[in-house]
Amino acid sequence: MRLRWTRSDVPREEGSVSVFLVVAVIALLLASGLVVDGGRKLQALRRADAVAEEAARAAGQALQAAPSVRGMPPRLDAVSATAAGRAYLSSAGVTGTVVARGDVIDVTTSTSEPTVFLAVIGIHSVSATGSASARLARGLAQEAS
Questions:
Q1: Type and span of the H or E element at 89
Q2: Quick one: which H or E segment has residue 115?
Q3: For the whole model, what pTM was predicted?
Q4: Residue 6: beta bridge partners?
C-alpha cells in the first residue's frame, strides 16, 4: 500500500505572526533607539562642556597689558575676554553666553545633535547645555613675594 499526499492533506501556512514576535521586535527597536539616541545625547553633553571649557580658556588669554608691564599682577580685560570667548563659540558652531567679571570668566553653551530612531516619533534632535568657569591665576613668583 502506498501513501499519496494531496494538497488538501498538507497544512497550509498563511504567514501569520505571533503576538510575541511583534512585541519582541518592537522592544528590540526601542532598546536600540535608546542606545543610539542616548549616545547622541551624551555626545551633545560632552561637546557642550568641552566647547564651554575651551571658550573660557580663550577668553582667559585677554589680559590688560599695562599692569603686567609695571610688575603688577595681571588683570583681565573684560571686553576683550568676552569678545574672544564669543569668537570661539562662533567658530565652534555653538550658541552660548560669555560673562567676564573681575578675574572670572563664566561660559554657558547650548548645542544639539540629530536623532536617528526618535525622529520616527517626531523628536528630530536632542539638546544639551554645558558650562565652565575660568579664573585668572596669579604667578607663583608673585605669590611668594
A1: helix 78-92
A2: none
A3: 0.72
A4: none
Identify any residues that bridge with 134 across adjacent strands, giving them in sequence order.
105
- Specify whether the CB–CB gap between 92 and 79 falls below 8 A: no
Q: Grid coordinates 557642550 are at which residue?
A: 48
Helix, strand or coil, per DSSP, at residue 118: helix
Domain residue spans of the chain = 19-138
The predicted-structure confidence for 63-78, as pLDDT tens digits, reads as follows 876 666 667 777 888 8
HEC string of 13-70 equals: CCCCCCHHHHHHHHHHHHHHHHHHHHHHHHHHHHHHHHHHHHHHHHHCCCEEHHHHHC
State mean pLDDT over 20-28: 88
Q: Is the pLDDT at 3 greater than 70, yes or no?
A: no
Angle between helices 19-59 and 78-92 (to 10 degrees): 150
The alpha carbon torsion through 37, 41, 46, 48 (nearest 10 deg) reads 130
